[in-house]
Amino acid sequence: MENQATKSKQPKIKKFMLVRYGRMNAIGFFEHSEANIPKVPTRVVVKTEKGLELGDIVGRLCSYRAGQYKLDKEQVKKYFEDSQIDISCNLVGSVIRLATADDISEEKHLQKNAKEEMDYCRKLVKEMQLPMEIVDADHIFGGERIVFYFMSDGRIDFRELVKRIAQEYQTRIEMRQIGSRDEAKLFGDYETCGQECCCKKFLKALKPVNMRMAKMQKATLDPSKISGYCGRLKCCLRYEDETYTELKRRLPRKGTRVKTSQGMGKIIDGQILTQIVMVEHDDQTKAAFPLSEIEILSNGQNFPDQQETAEEARGDIPAENEHEKYEHEQEDSRQEDTDDESCDQQDTQQTDPDQQFQP
Question: Does pTM surpass 0.85?
């Protein structure tokens, strides 16, 4: 009897589940009470600050034991940080239940309604002559609110628009401004590499990409070849940037005096990936040598392509026409969710609490 009493007094161990949820595919920890997690792709109904939403269990095949995620929060956080994915260890919400066939059917019904709601919103925008483009609509699973995603060059006073939509559908309305990268994340299909857009397939945190990365890795700055689906610099330019940067540091500067098997000379050019330098000897002859076969005698100046100008830092790309510029602006997306992804981000405008109309 004493053992039973002792067991009953022991605090109940909280179990956590890692879930990908929401229209922007955010990732977060959710508390749950399931004894076992199915080892097949499984969807769940979760409760977040927006209301009830459907999500997908992350790491479901081998990451759970007796319903408990094997890795602790710090290990999970380190994994995602190493993958350059922002994630918070704080609880996002709770798991209500494993999704049923009725839940999946209801989701499809809401998606159909969302299309009609988006069409209605576009109609009102046209009537009110608002300078904005409605991109998508998300009807939250629990019916608590409808989120409209839109694009615009600046901030919009959409209070009257929100009020009219709320009166029509008798629910809370939220307007969220997104940039071109977020639009690509929602609707992007396939890139020039033949693969699905990285931002849609697996990237959860879109990091800034600048012209320095493009100039180091590309022989051409043709906008059509270094720009992605969104029209901005390709996110994949970040993947090898660390390697290129490290290899570039190893190359001697232009004008550096060196000694080779053919005599004395100076560096006039270099190749980052191959680690080969072009040397002009004192007798005016030129020859290429691997970096390991030369002896550095003195330092020179940085190669022109190793110097980042203010124009490059801004992300401006010279177009084929010398009188034109192909500008890549950094976007600054201020998303409401702690896990909301954005990369070269553009200001995100959304309804303030006092602007959200609750019928």
Answer: no
Beta bridge mates, 174:
147
Which domain-ending residue is among 82, 99, 116?
99
Place of tokens 């200001």: 347
Whole-Å CA distances, 107 to 48, 102, 113, 171: 16, 9, 10, 17
Overall domain count for the chain: 4
Q: What torsion do the CA atoms of 63, 69, 72, 73 make, to the nearest 10 degrees? A: 100
Task: Tell me, yes or no, whether 108 and 92 share the same domain.
Answer: no
Return the bridge partners of 56, or none. 20, 43
Domain assignment present for 314:
yes
Contact 252, 277 (CB under 8 A): yes
Answer yes or no: do 244 and 257 share one domain: no
* Separation of alpha carbons 103 and 54, rounded Å: 8
pLDDT tens sequence across 217-228? 876 788 888 888
Give the pLDDT confidence of 255-309 residue by residue, as tens digits.
899 999 999 999 999 989 889 999 999 998 999 999 989 999 877 665 544 444 4
**What is the token pair recorded at 320?**
């084929």
Whether residues 130 and 172 share a domain: the answer is yes
The three-state (H, E, C) secondary structure of the chain, written as one string = CHHHHHHHHCCCCCEEEEEEECCCCEEEEEEECCCCCCCCCCEEEEEECCEEEEEEECCCCCCEECCEECCCHHHHHHHHHHCCCCCCCCEEEEEEEECCHHHHHHHHHHHHHHHHHHHHHHHHHHHHCCCCEEEEEEECCCCCEEEEEEECCCCCCCHHHHHHHHHHHCCEEEEEECCHHHHHHHHCCECCCCCECHHHHCCCCCCCCCHHHHHHHCCCCCHHHHECCCCCECHHHHCCHHHHHHHHHHCCCECCEEEECCEEEEEEEEECCCCEEEEEECCCCEEEEEHHHCEECCCCECCHHHCCCHHHHHCEEECCCCCCEEECCCCCCCCCCCCCCCCCCCCCCECCCCCCCCC
- Domain residues for the domain of 320 are 209-249+309-329
